[in-house]
Amino acid sequence: MPRYWRKVPKSMAVSNPSIDEIFKAAKKLGLNPVKEEKAHPARWWRKEGCILIEKKGKKAEIIKKIAEIIKEGRSEKEA
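-> structure tokens emitted (79 positions)
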């Protein structure tokens, strides 16, 4: 059975971030994102896509920064 480790703490996480939210957050960080239409092999019928970015730092740090921006954006929408 595969194990899945968290990339971000639960306190920073949002449920089901969309590809557009990730793209906008990466753009805000100046990572020059590029969208590609792809599917995960386990869900080949769902073309969810992926984002390619410039690597400007450690992967874990970039993921956390993107998560923070998405969470801030969602909290602004709710207010």
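The beta strands are 34-36, 50-52.
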